[in-house]
Amino acid sequence: MVRTVMFDLDGTLIHFEFEGFMRAYLAAVGARVAPVMDPRRFVSQLLKSTEAMMANLDPNRTNQEVFMEDFFSKMDLPQDVLMPVIDSFYREDFPNLAGTLGIRPLPAARPVLEDLFRRGYEVVIATNPVFPRVATEERLRWGGIGDLPFRLVTVYEDCHFCKPNPEYYEEVLSMIGRKPEECIMVGNDVDEDLAAGELGIKTYLVEDCLMGSGALGFKPDYRGKFNDLVGFFISDEFAKL
User: Fold this and answer.
1) Residue 27, exposed/middle/buried by CB under 10 A (0-12, 13-18, 19+)?
2) CA end-to-end span of the chain, whole Å?
3) pLDDT in tens, 111-121
4) Which of 112, 129, 108, 130 is CA-nearest to residue 121?
5) Which of 42, 67, 202, 215 is the most exposed place for a label (fewest CB within 10 A)?
6) Is the C-alpha dihedral spanning 10, 12, 15, 16 positive or negative?
7) Cis peptide before 164 (omega within 30 of 0)
8) Alpha carbon distance 122, 207 (integer Å)
9) Is 217 left (phi over 0), alpha (psi -120 to 50) or beta?
């Protein structure tokens, strides 16, 4: 019986064009660090260290630890000089990206989540934990859902793995004390989100903002637009899962 609904965030509960977001994000963080180092070098290493973090399968190091170790081993500036600049970016500049990109809450998202809570379901925000907590909390605010009582929100300070590694979903299950058959994963990425199905977690592919190459060959148990998902959650089929 399904007791927990896992949701991806970007492109699922918050609808925006992800490539456009990444361009704006990298340009903004590059501008912030420009007074202390070459922004092109910073952005290049940021992306490379993010790739190293996403590939890591060491259960003894958090994503944050893996990223920091890889990133600062390639930087000339010491961590205690550069980190205050990065921290100020997330506090002062990152929140402004929503207005720059015209990001608005998805009207149906909050009512769907509130209805799941009323009916006794746990809700997990299973966003890929490649961002620090402060950035993830800000993205939740962009979606108008930052104040809801989520069972878990995955961030890079706490997690040891990233999507689409099955270890990410195993860790989430361990964190919330659930079995795969007690959960359903809802997301828009055919690779990262549908990977949950490899563990026996039911999957729902939201088609409004599809992402991923499909090269991993995962198939969803259910699929449709977000408005279709609204109907699915109140259907007999969902109630019987």
Assistant:
1) middle
2) 5
3) 999 999 999 99
4) 112
5) 215
6) positive
7) yes
8) 23
9) left
The residue-averaged pLDDT of 168-184 equals 98
Ranges of beta strands (E only) in the chain are 4-7, 122-125, 152-153, 183-187, 202-206, 222-224
* Interval 139-161: pLDDT, tens: 999 999 999 999 999 999 999 99
DSSP one-letter code for 202: E
What is the chain's length?
241
Copy the structure tokens of residue 40: 């092109």
* In contact, 209 and 28? CB cutoff 8 Å: no
pLDDT value of residue 160: 98
**In Å, what is the CA distance from 18 to each residue of 125, 216, 228?**
18, 20, 22
pTM: 0.97
Residue with tokens 């977001």: 21
Task: Give the burial class of 164: count Cβ atoms within 10 A of its Cβ; 0-12 exposed, 13-18 middle, 19 or more buried.
Answer: buried
